[in-house]
Amino acid sequence: MKNPYHRALAILLSSACLGAIAAPGEGRMPPPGPGHHQHGPAFAPGVDLSDAQEDKVFAIMHAQEPKRREYRRTLHQSQDALRALGTAEQFDEARAASLAQAAGNALAALTLLDARTDAQVRAVLTPEQRKQSAENRPRREQRRPGRQAD
């Protein structure tokens, strides 16, 4: 490329293409980075597990995943239907109440599942690991914006 105009045009087009690749689509969130949407023991940072413990924790997490998916699906479908009902020409109070109840039940079931799973995972830990987990909790809570430590 001997012509400076062609060189400038090539640089401009290259940077425009790179910008388009790096930018998320309009109205969409960028793709999740490492650590997003990972389910795992909340105690993980700073607590070292043996291979046997890792296997047990994996089995616990794996066993609860189908129910978690079912509850989330129900929750999201109920919320979507409720939003759609809110913008409909005719608002059906009974249908809205039913959808809100379904969403609430799914959220309650999901919360209970999380508590049960946490208890099962904590049962795998040694007393020392439980202590480490408790010590790490305030630091984890500080890193979570919008949340206060208990």
UniProtKB/TrEMBL annotation:
<feature type="compositionally biased region" description="Basic and acidic residues">
    <location>
        <begin position="128"/>
        <end position="150"/>
    </location>
</feature>
<dbReference type="GO" id="GO:0051082">
    <property type="term" value="F:unfolded protein binding"/>
</dbReference>
<protein>
    <submittedName>
        <fullName>Periplasmic heavy metal sensor</fullName>
    </submittedName>
</protein>
<feature type="signal peptide">
    <location>
        <begin position="1"/>
        <end position="22"/>
    </location>
</feature>
<feature type="region of interest" description="Disordered">
    <location>
        <begin position="124"/>
        <end position="150"/>
    </location>
</feature>
<keyword id="KW-0732">Signal</keyword>
<dbReference type="InterPro" id="IPR052211">
    <property type="entry name" value="Cpx_auxiliary_protein"/>
</dbReference>
<dbReference type="InterPro" id="IPR025961">
    <property type="entry name" value="Metal_resist"/>
</dbReference>
<dbReference type="Pfam" id="PF13801">
    <property type="entry name" value="Metal_resist"/>
</dbReference>
<feature type="region of interest" description="Disordered">
    <location>
        <begin position="24"/>
        <end position="48"/>
    </location>
</feature>
<dbReference type="GO" id="GO:0030288">
    <property type="term" value="C:outer membrane-bounded periplasmic space"/>
</dbReference>
